[in-house]
Amino acid sequence: MNFMMIAVAVLGAIGLVAALVLYVCSKKFAVYEDPRISQVAALLPGANCGGCGFAGCSALADALVKGADAGSLDGISCPVGGQEVMGKVADLLGMAIANGDPMVAVVRCGGTCELRQKVVSYDGLRSCAAMNACGAGETGCGFGCLGCGDCVSACQFDAIHMNPETGLPEVDEDRCTACGACAKACPRHVIELRKKGVKGRRVYVECVNKDKGAVAMKACKAACIGCGKCAKECPFGAITVENNVSYIDYTKCRLCRKCVAVCPTHAIKAVNFPAPKPKAEVQTEATLSAVKPVAQPKASTTTKQEEEQA
């Protein structure tokens, strides 16, 4: 009986000592976490897509709290949640944020199956990264879309799909959150985040081919040849030509579409604009006078002899 009591007392003493050690260690090595971090994280979408540039939503919440303590949230935002979520976060942290322009992913390649013929057949892993590592892909263009759909696999919001007729990816503007995952997955940097624009209207060069004009046109009929006509026509200085390819700065573009009209290869694309109305034909006095009157058919005349015979 005494042995049992001693054993219980020893175990109890060990438990008390261990509890005391754990308590001291928890206080000594405690890591303080600002309670606002969990509150901000609760407001975020929780997609953990990495579009914000951080490892996940928790890391973004931590950065937002630190930014608020520093007095500025510039450069820190959630592309998935957009202005609505960032407004709630700013209210929680007692900060103000500037209204940013909504962005959308844009595929800067117009080389459809008809305009960009295959020159070789690739028999390997159907991955853009793998195909790009092997060489130029199945077409003669070493800069355009490879068509394997790495961007589709990278998108967590089902906002991009491959078009089997064109062989190119297409972005669903309503679902796109501008997280940038598709742009990061593209080994040729064909996908770019651009300002969505008023009513979704935007103008951009649908080509990234840096070859000279003759070489680019040989690989794709819709390639930009770097002629510079668009840059000369633009009255706002929004277009530059570098490395044989034009680029439109969306911060300067006023959507006048003068560049679209002068592009000889139709490499500049205008999205979500209304279709042009057909011009009504106006007939002037000069055109009316130039129209000759139609001659009336002569009335059939019969002689008196023919009538008697009838």
Automatic annotation (TrEMBL):
Q: CDD domains of this UniProt entry?
A: MtMvhB_like (cd10549)
Keyword annotations of the record: 4Fe-4S, Cell membrane, Electron transport, Iron, Iron-sulfur, Membrane, Metal-binding, Repeat, Translocase, Transport
Compartment(s) where it occurs, according to its Swiss-Prot or TrEMBL record: Cell membrane
Q: Residue limits of the 4Fe-4S ferredoxin-type domain?
A: 145-165, 167-196, 213-244, 247-273
Residues the record lists as binding [4Fe-4S] cluster 1? 49, 52, 57, 78
Please name the top-level EC class of this enzyme: translocase
For this protein, the Enzyme Commission number is 7.-.-.-
All copies of domain 4Fe-4S, residue ranges: 32-95
Look up the record and name the cofactor or cofactors this protein needs. [4Fe-4S] cluster
Residue ranges, annotated region (Hydrophobic): 1-26
| Record: residues binding [4Fe-4S] cluster 2 | 141, 145, 148, 151, 186
**Where does this protein hold [4Fe-4S] cluster 3?**
155, 176, 179, 182
**Cofactor binding notes:** Binds 3 [4Fe-4S] clusters.
Q: What does this protein do?
A: Part of a membrane-bound complex that couples electron transfer with translocation of ions across the membrane.
**Family to which this protein belongs:** Belongs to the 4Fe4S bacterial-type ferredoxin family. RnfB subfamily.
Subunit annotation: The complex is composed of six subunits: RnfA, RnfB, RnfC, RnfD, RnfE and RnfG.
- Entry protein name: Ion-translocating oxidoreductase complex subunit B
Species for this entry: Xylanibacter brevis
Q: What is the phylogenetic placement of the source species in the record?
A: Bacteria, Pseudomonadati, Bacteroidota, Bacteroidia, Bacteroidales
